[in-house]
Structure formats: C-alpha cells, structure tokens
Amino acid sequence: MSSEERSAFHGHQVEPGDKRIVRPYGDTSGDGMVQISFTLPVPHTKRAEGAALQLAGKMGIDPAMLVHAKPIGDTFTFFVVYGRVNHLVDMSKVQVVERDFPLLSAKEVNAVVKQKLRRKLSVVGACIGTDAHTVGIDAILNVKGIAGEKGLEYYRELKVTNLGAQVSVPELVEAARAEKADAVLVSQVVTQRDAHLHNTREMSAAFREAMPAGKRPLLIVGGPRFDETMTEELGVDRIFGRGTTPGEVASYVVHALITNKKAKV
Ligand code: B12
C-alpha cells in the first residue's frame, strides 16, 4: 500500500478536493461501508444466515451484518448484507469508455446529415437471437424515446427500420442489405450463458462475411450488461450500456459515419 493509499485508508487525510483515492461511504466519510445482495440455494434457516455471513467474510466484508433475509420458494434464500470493506479505489486507474464525440441536438444531427450526406441516413435495428426484450431498442428507435429525449424515428434525416424481437442474424443481414443500412443497431438484454456475447460475435462475423470491408454498415450493440470496452473482441464499432439515450446514439452515428468520414456517400 502506498503512503497516499495508507492515508486514505485511515480515513482522515483525504483532502476535500482530492478524489484520486476513494473508499465507500456508509455512515461516515471513508468508513468503507457497502451493501450487497445475493441468493443462496438453501432454505431460509439460521444456518443459511450463517452461510451468507461466511460468504460476505470471504468477500472481504468485515464486520458483516445480515440486514435482510427472505425465502424465495422452499429451497432458495435472498440476502442483503451490510458491512465494511478495506479496499481502496484509485480513480486514476479506472478504465471506462468516455464519450469521444460531441453531443448534438436532433436539429444539429439532421443538419449534418442533410448538408454532408445529402440523403437520408439508414438505420436498421433489432433484438437478435431468442432475446425478446425490445424495450431498450424501442427506447432508442421509437419516436417516444426515453428520458425526455425522442427516439431516432423523430429525426427527419434518419430512415429507421425497427425489425423488433427475435430476429435471426441472416434476417438482419438481409434487411441491412435491403435497406442499404448505414448503421445496424442490435440490442441484447439477456446475458444467461453469455448469450449476448455469442450473439454479437455471430452477428459481426456474419456482416464481415456478407459484405466487403468498407461496405459494411457501422455495427452498434447495446444492452444493460455489456462491457463497453469489448468492442474489438466482439467485432463491433461501439457498445452502449445502461442508461443510453437516443441523442447519444444519433450523435455517435453522425460522428462515426459523417464527421469522422466513414460514410458511403
Ligand atoms: C420487461 C422485462 C421483460 C419483458 C420484456 C418485454 C419487452 N417487450 O421487452 C418480458 C416479460 C417479456 C420478459 C421476459 C423474459 N425475461 Co425479462 N426483464 C424485463 C425487465 C423487468 C426490464 C427490462 C427493460 O425493459 N428495461 C428497460 C430498458 C429501457 O432498459 P434496457 O433494456 O437496459 O435498455 C437501455 C440500455 O441498456 C440501452 N440499450 C439497450 N439495447 C440497446 C441497443 C442499442 C443499439 C443501443 C444503442 C442501446 C441499447 O439503451 C436503453 C435505454 O437507455 C428486466 C429486469 C430489469 N429491471 O432490467 C428483466 C430481465 C432482463 N429479464 C430476464 C429474464 C431471465 C427473462 C426471461 C428469460 C424470463 C423467463 N424465464 O421467461 C424471459 C425471456 C424472454 C426472451 N425470450 O427474451 C432477466 C435476464 C437475466 C440475464 N442474466 O440474462 C432480467 C434481468 C430479470 C432478472 N433479474 O432476472 N422480460
């Protein structure tokens, strides 16, 4: 542990403006208190509660307090544990994908497309595989939008084709071809057995196979449990996580395809 970390660890020498090393906050600054929840495949008994505390201890929570336990059927129990961790977070070592494009209004997006592309920009969206969670992709595409922002259908210069749920990869590639898609937007919400990763890899490989480099659309995936740093591994151009708004997506599309000069004009 460095001397800086040690100071922060003892909780009193972190200057108000110094946010490099931080610890969780519960009751008092830097007390390291966290709350976690999990389920164990055991009936709700005293022993089960002891098992939950044992797990919390092994996770480095010390002392750990069981603040909630509730049976889920006869053979599972849900727990909430509150307690102290000694770990520190070094903010300078945090790795995230920061927004590296300007956030534009719908009016600005329309103006760029109209002036620079001089045709409508075609967007094809779908929820692929067996995934039927369409609320996320609809939030991005439908006029109704989300979080006070209208979806991409509202943008006059975008032509949106929303294929809906449970679209197969071949169907998606075909639709992208038919619509001359500039961008393909795929949603994956279910992550059981890494379905979102497998489906995304299958999708990007199919586009690579079906279309020559330079002719394939911009590939974007989104969903609440993606790791936004995995673009290369998944073969896509951009990943959007939870809380994404349509404006961010429209701004990125315009940036990647037009302002940053990749468009098939
Ligand atoms: C609503 C819902 C359903 C509805 C879906 C209705 C519909 N038409 O979409 C119904 C009842 C059908 C359903 C069914 C199932 N569900 Co469900 N469902 C949910 C729930 C409660 C909310 C999801 C949601 O709508 N969120 C709101 C939207 C706006 O958020 P979002 O999807 O994250 O989207 C945002 C971002 O992620 C991003 N985004 C998303 N997609 C995209 C795409 C692009 C291109 C971009 C740029 C951005 C982007 O932008 C969006 C806006 O900010 C979640 C739990 C939860 N609270 O999240 C479970 C949940 C997703 N479901 C789950 C499960 C297990 C199922 C079922 C398997 C249950 C079952 N046993 O039958 C089935 C599967 C059906 C199927 N074949 O897919 C699990 C998934 C677990 C996992 N690890 O995968 C969850 C997490 C519940 C849980 N905790 O167990 N579900």
Textual characterization of the structure:
- There is one protein chain.
- The protein contains 8 helices and 10 strands.
- By secondary structure, the protein is of the alpha/beta class.
- The protein folds into 2 domains: 3-93, Defensin A-like (2-Layer Sandwich), CATH 3.30.30; 106-259, Cobalamin-binding domain (Rossmann fold).
- The strands form 3 sheets. A 5-stranded parallel β-sheet has the order 7-6-8-9-10, with helices on both faces. A 3-stranded antiparallel β-sheet has the order 2-4-3, covered by helices on one side. Strands 1-5 form a two-stranded antiparallel ribbon.
- The longest helix has 16 residues, at 195-210.
- Residues 1-16 have low confidence and may be disordered.
- Bound molecules: cobalamin.
- Cobalamin is lined by residues 130-137, 139-140, 146, 185-187, 189-192, 220-224, 240, 242-244, 249.
Q: In terms of topology, how is this protein built?
A:
Layout: H1 3-9, E1 21-22, E2 33-40, H2 46-58, E3 61-72, E4 76-85, E5 89-90, H3 106-117, E6 121-127, H4 135-141, E7 158-162, H5 169-178, E8 183-187, H6 195-210, E9 218-222, H7 231-234, E10 238-240, H8 246-259
Bound molecules: cobalamin (B12).
Domain B12-binding: 120-264
GO molecular function, one term: cobalamin binding
Protein name: Lysine 2,3-aminomutase
